[in-house]
Write a structure and sequence with these properties.
With 535 residues, the protein is an alpha/beta fold. It has two domains: 271 residues, 3-Layer(bba) Sandwich (FAD/NAD(P)-binding domain), CATH 3.50.50.60; 135 residues, no CATH class. Strands 4-3-2-8-23 form a five-stranded parallel sheet. A four-stranded mixed sheet has the order 1-7-6-5. Helix 1 packs parallel to helix 13 and helix 2 crosses helix 4. The longest helix is centred in the middle third of the chain and has 21 residues. GO terms for molecular function: L-aspartate oxidase activity. It holds the Pfam family FAD_oxidored. This is FAD dependent oxidoreductase.
């Protein structure tokens, strides 16, 4: 069965960037079709089960007003619906998980509820049509314009074709780019081309960051050991030169120094979650694996409400870097191997991992598929750190924002800024055999030119597929930056729709650009940073 729909703006991909893009277009009065291939909207925050990675100043500034509403909505959801202790409930900066990676670690389904509530008025009015679970499979293109995108239902295969004058690619891996013939790059660019200090001399398009399949666990009485995974023997013995030991082990490189460092692991350590400060300036927070990405600290809740803390496993040892999963005919095989690696990590933790008391394994570790909303217990979707990226009118390069290059000058300030972001350039081990690349960066801006493909007129990136390099993707890929990128793309599409112009015309006309930036500022975008230091 095939249906046809029309919209003012089509947003393909319902992750953070896609949801933000849809909201921006809807606020402007546009009719929007939003699609998502997984059961939950929210992407890396929900279906990929990654607690938010944010800057040290996130509680004060550095994000859009709508992203702040999302964060505060999550906290308010806990206050209204969860049995928090009085001390936790009273905290303005409530961190339900007390995790070290972020000032707001929480269970994925809470973010789903808040994101759905943000879309609910538009679903009720009919301004928004949400197609779920659908993925893009084909596109109709006329010259430099995308006319329509065909989507297939994940389970039934039923197809829907959506036509729209503006199309946004908010998929996790830039799926629309090859379907529409939009020029794009993958992997490492050549340093000779970009001038980046951390880039190789020759381009390496198949050299991409590791993909990870995350999962949630708690620790309770009883034996919850899973069946031995098929490739467990392979993963238990797997080593690579730069790791400092077996992949399945508590010893792994420190991303910032590259020296092998020993992590600790102690379920339910009995720490005070209200004393945790999630600040990336203080370090990555991953030395204690249990509290690193803990998403529910039982001591934040009334006694007996939670039998255990819940922690989210997104640790070095689940990084799958044997092969890329973009533009690879064997992508499905490698994604399944990534899932098997995650199962193997859990099985190793349950059976063979060394304990401080001299024993081995924690059979009380329990896989919490109910927390991640999946049948097999793992996250619904793989965590893609890297996407196909458009060849853009402007490409952000390392020397635009590297603290080592820019020093006291701070990041390059773009005349066409449509938002700001901050994170270290954080690249995980890659499929070309590279170790971490972790570089201090300056608080940076998002240039409009990075949202404009070099040729295609009406397609915009709305996530990690904007005009960055392999290097700068490492700091543009995090939650609030992806949201800002998507929200800016949605606002740009709506602004262009009103005037019947291609988005590039906004960047080319100083008066239109100033008007558009004024509109963004009025909606709560921050286009420039205050005077803050790099880290």
């Amino acid at each position: 069965m095939k249906q046809e729909l029309q919209a003012d703006i089509l947003v393909v991909g319902g992750g953070l960037g896609g949801t933000a893009a849809a909201l921006a277009a809807l606020r402007a009065g546009r009719r929007v079709v939003l699609t998502e291939e997984y059961d939950w909207i929210g992407g890396q925050l929900t279906s990929q089960a990654v607690p938010p990675d944010e800057s040290s100043w996130v509680e004060q500034f550095g994000v859009t007003a709508s992203y702040r509403r999302l964060r505060e909505g999550i906290r308010e959801y806990y206050r209204r619906h969860y049995p928090l202790t009085e001390a936790a409930r009273a905290r303005r900066d409530l961190n339900p998980g007390g995790g070290h990676v972020s000032r707001l670690c929480h269970e994925p389904r809470v973010a789903v509820a808040v994101l759905e509530s943000m879309l609910a008025p538009y679903l009720g009015s009919g301004a928004l049509r949400l197609l779920q679970p659908y993925r893009p499979v084909a596109a109709d293109v006329d010259g430099d314009r995308v006319e329509a995108v065909t989507l297939a239902h994940r389970d039934s295969g039923d197809r829907i074709t959506v036509s729209a004058p503006y199309v946004l690619d908010a998929t996790e891996t830039g799926e629309l780019l090859p379907l529409t013939g939009t020029e794009y790059v993958t992997g490492f660019e050549s340093g000779r081309e970009t001038g980046e200090p951390s880039a190789p001399d020759e381009a390496q398009p198949d050299n991409m960051q590791a993909v990870s399949v995350c999962f949630a666990i708690d620790h309770v009485d009883g034996d919850h050991t899973i069946d031995r995974p098929a490739d467990y023997g392979f993963w238990r013995d797997f080593r690579t030169d730069f790791w400092g030991g077996n992949l399945l082990g508590f010893r792994a490189p420190n991303p910032r120094t590259l020296e092998a460092a020993e992590r600790t692991f102690e379920p339910n350590p009995g720490d005070d979650p209200l004393a945790v400060v999630g600040d990336q300036r203080l370090g990555g927070g991953d030395m204690n694996l249990w509290t690193f990405r803990r998403i529910a600290a039982r001591d934040n809740f009334t006694p007996g409400a939670y039998a255990s803390d819940i922690t989210l496993v997104n640790w070095p040892m689940i990084d799958y870097f044997l092969a890329p999963v973009i533009d690879n005919p064997d992508a499905a095989l490698h994604l399944e191997r990534a899932r098997d690696l995650s199962r193997s990590v859990l099985y190793w933790l349950q059976t063979e991992a060394p304990r401080a008391d001299g024993g081995t394994g924690w059979p009380g570790l329990r896989l919490r598929g109910d927390v991640t909303g999946s049948a097999d217990g793992l996250a619904q979707a793989p965590y893609h750190r890297e996407s196909r990226r458009i060849k853009a009118e402007y490409t952000v390069v390392e020397q635009d924002l590297s603290a080592a290059v820019r020093g006291d000058k701070g990041a390059v300030s773009y005349h066409d800024s449509v938002g700001i972001g901050m994170y270290r350039i954080d690249l995980h081990p890659s499929t070309g055999g590279d170790n971490y690349i972790d570089v201090a960066s300056c608080p940076f801006e998002i240039p409009l030119g990075a949202l404009l493909p070099v040729r295609v007129d009406n397609l915009l990136p709305a996530g990690k597929n904007l005009g960055t390099t392999h290097i700068t993707n490492g700091c543009y890929r995090l939650h609030p930056v992806e949201w800002n990128i998507g929200e800016a793309a949605g606002a740009l599409a709506a602004f262009s729709f009103e005037r019947g112009l291609p988005p590039r015309a906004v960047g080319d006309d100083p008066a239109l650009l100033a008007e558009f930036q004024d509109r963004l500022t009025a909606q709560g975008f921050e286009l420039r940073w205050p005077d803050v230091a790099a880290y």
